[in-house]
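Lab meeting, action items carried over

1. Structure of the two-component assembly. Owner: GW. Status: complete.
Input record:
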Amino acid sequence: MSTKQITVENLTFRYPGSDDPVLQNTNVHIDTDEFTAIVGGNGSGKTTLCKTFNGLVPHFFNGTFEGSVRVDGTETTDSDVSALSRTVGYVFQDFENQLVQPVVRDDVAFAPKNHGLADYETRAQQALETVGLGDAADRFIWELSGGQQHLVALAGVLAMDPEFIIVDEPAAQLDPHNARETYEQLQEIQRETDVGVIVIEHHTEFIADYCDRLVMVADGDVAWTEPVDVGLNHVDELLAEDIHPPQVTQIARELPDDRGRLPNGRYPVTVDQAARCFRTVADGQRRRATPDGRGSGDRLISVSDVTHGYPTLREGRKTVLESFDLELYADDRVALVGANGAGKSTLLRLLTGLESPDDGTVTVLGQDTNETLPEELADETVYIHQNPEEMFVEETVREDIAYYLKSREVPDTDQRVDDVISFLDLEDIADRDGRLLSLGQQRRASLAIGLATDPSIVLLDEPTGSLDLQSRREVTRMLSRSDSRTETVVIATHDLQLVAAWADRVIVLGPNGILADEPAQAVFEQPELLQQANLRPPQVVGLSERLGVESPALTVSELVDQLTAAEVR
Amino acid sequence: MGYLDALRNITIADIKVDLMRTAYDNDNALLNKFDPRVVIIWAAIFVIVPWFFYEPEPLFAMLVAALLLAYLSQTSIYLLALLIWGSLTNIGFIVVLSSVVYWWQGGSGGLRGAVVDNSVALLPFTLKLTVISVVSLAAFSAMSPKKLAKGLLSLGVPRPFTFAIAYGYRMMPVLLEEYHDLVNSLRLRNKAPENRGLLRWRYFLYLLKLSIKAFYPMAFNVAKRSRVTVEAMETKGFSHSLGDEASRALRLGDLEIQPRDVSFVTVSLLFVVVVAVYL
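Predicted assembly:
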């Protein structure tokens, strides 16, 4: 099959009302026979660039448009969005809002029907089968998980039989497991059907594993286009845009005497490459897993014999937790991990008292949640929603932070609010409407709302959500700040890098209750356990395993130390 | 705090599921089996018919039939209850007001007599209102969004409007979820009144205030989501389809009036005739 091209020449684009162009004199060339990743810092113009490919820029977003964008020979300015979308499919970052029909099949058939294609039913069915959702065709969109919804959006694009598919930050809204499945799906589509796949992505580990070519956008221009192996080696340029190279690349760079380099002089970018490149560590430095915190402090929370579920439309009541027991102690740093639907969020909501268990009892700081209002439990407990948007009810971030304190008539409210704002560096967004901030900013602001309550129990639901690196830093800072008063922190998360670096007690939830309740180190020593829970260890853990380190290193610096030491001996 | 639990756990979740069932689970609903155009026209006729009857008996028979239809169409019990409660209180208020005025003006028979007289006088009116509400509720909640949109489209309603129906159905669960989350988020940051008062009225008033306060953020969040939706609609060729004959033909292709549609309308009309003649 002959390849098709997208060619951008000397493109300059300025949004109406803005003085600075988003894109300036940009040139880039993308082929259908490659899996292309576009990276760039926030506001670098990468999304705008991709929106020129299907004509949203300049047909939908009018602005000053100079230069040329050609898709398969067609000048985009001579066509329109719906015609171009037949060639270039776009999966948006918040893909849920791209789904406009209630039933899966109708949504996938929506575009073909709009274009009057008589075979819309076959197209929809085929597209759904390609993404592995053939048997979900008659389900309602809202019954599907986030990962499945993303695939429906992808199928909706595939149904038009495009030459190119653009996927905007798949890993930002999906949990790591689903993100990986999406990538596998995309890779297969690209290989099997010669459709050019373009992703916008921050997570270099996905790029290294799945993509062929890397396009770096910086300051409204394409800085360079390189094969992925080469591109990810431009470590300093990536870091300058706040893009973190894969853990293995970071390790390789830290090793003394260029020992981390591959024969061709480059640093490895995948675990595979690194495992071949680094020398195997003869073990003998097995560290003992540190004992967990259980029993060291007072018992703060106890969940005993709890059965809880929710009503569903067609299948009666669905039980999420069954005869569930758990005790949490003071000074625990608990990570709650497990596949979607294992009950992590349900458990946290039970601890807030927003829901009371169908059966059994939940006791928080000596209060039975059945007997206590959530408002009373909130005196000592704070819960931060996984979707930070739901935390904003006032018109400015400052008012939102003050809300709790004001309703409780705390004397020095203003002082405390200012403290929190300056601690989390929120001065520049404090007087803006929280709902209009970017997701990353919203997350920081939601942490501030929690921190201001000065709680003794902190419950965080997916605080790093999309594994966004800045929010991981902020969460860690918030945790360190609240150490003085906080007695225990429970985090429900998919982010095993956070778990590895922070938690001392890891509770792995499976479909039938607790699979494991152990120190972090011990959990990472059991790859089959992680797999069972749909989790994927951080690269550093995978690599130490491959290198024969028996008790895996949990952070980059730990492994660098071990590798350096092994060499010395 | 047993009954409070019931209130905050079971009811909210269950009402949600019940509403969703009404909106989405129409596979077995009687009125969903017919051609949507027929159901729409049928509903239009039966919203008018009750106004030609003045005696309580035939109206009562119609109400029974309407309720039966609502039951067969799996209409939400909560919605029905809300609707009937609405008409009763509305009429009740008129009865009380008019009776008090009558009595105050020195009408004969005293207050009690006035209430009875006025209730009887207003009964047919109440029944008419209830019948047409139940009929339209049954018809429109039983049809799946796709059918409803198709029916309206073929009757000449513009496509942006019929699309809005399907989109509304798509968004309703999102709205409900959003709203529930926001109310919860507010509860965790507020302080419930310490003195709850007789029958906890202060506490319920406080919950009511929160539920009102959650509306604006919900509308805001949902409106924000639609920004992407509009872009996505463009890429899915929505504006292209507005003027496209082939697309319209595909959309209406499989509409066909079948014998069962005809018999449904015939049976309904016969029922009215029987009621008119014998009651």
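2. GW to write a short summary for the group page. Key points so far: Confidence is low (pLDDT under 50) at residues 284-295 of chain A. Chain A touches chain B through 70 residues (CB under 8 Å).
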